[in-house]
User: Fold this.
Amino acid sequence: MTEATTQGIKISVNSVFCGVQVRNQQKHFLFDYYITIENLSPYTVQLFSRHWEIYDSLNPTEIVEGDGVVGLQPILKSGEKHAYKSHCILLSNCGSMKGYYNMVNLDQETTFKVAVPSFQLLTEAILN
Assistant:
């Protein structure tokens, strides 16, 4: 598990290799990742957008941006957590992801970025 805390918001990430799919005679490597966002600050915050940098050893880095996470823009009071699962498909068996969440402090009406630490997307063959 990989963890980082920015301005009182703790991000924990765990990734899992899920298998290989073949499409049009091309292998695709499937990964799930599980993220927990924990508000350790004294403020109420809301995640409103995300920015991902996805590295695949066989492709250029892909940038993905959008509103919320898996269709949600969670509001977290002090001490609350939000957990979700998503996935990534790579053409290689080796990659990584990192990024950040754009958040708003609802008490102070200020915006800030929360780092999502770099985490590995590796098949079992790479881990051995």
